[in-house]
Amino acid sequence: xxxxxxxxxxxxxxxxxxxxxxxxxxxxxxxxxxxxxxxxxxxxxxxxxxxxxxxxxxxxxxxxxxxxxxxxxxxxxxxxxxxxxxxxxxxxxxxxxxxxxxxxxxxxxxxxxxxxxxxxxxxxxxxxxxxxxxxxxxxxxxxxxxxxxxxxxxxxxxxxxxxxxxxxxxxxxxxxxxxxxxxxxxx
Length: 187
What we know:
The chain is α/β, with parallel strands linked by helices. It has one domain: Response regulator (Rossmann fold). Helix content is 47%, strand content 18%. The protein has a 7-stranded mixed sheet, with helices on both faces. It is globular, with a radius of gyration of 17 Å.
């Protein structure tokens, strides 16, 4: 099962810039212990160059490093933050959303659950769709198919979620077209 983790960074940057066009210095929070961190970073760096934005790489693999990364982003005058896809960040969801709010930094996340917690915007693979695909595979294996004979599956549903309360608190106006295309708009 694949979730397109490494290939959505550029799209997240595009969405963040659509929501906050004035963002010229963008922090990219990444866990350097994650094996995909290098490819995620390359993807976002290439997109930042294309948009003419400066990208600050913020490494964090522990709770205290997350705090330090946000402090560094503020010190380096970041206008916004992209949170890289990492399971460690899922477990630190409240901390990440809280720090973004405390520092008044628009942030985009990789799972809808961050937006439900108060994050501004998220774009990523649908976990529900991935579980459905995984369940189908489990059923096929239980019926006797060999796992090695099954092709890699990829989720085909992506979710865009926007939290309008957070946007208002940050003084951002969410474009109507973005609201209409979102899978979930939290008011």
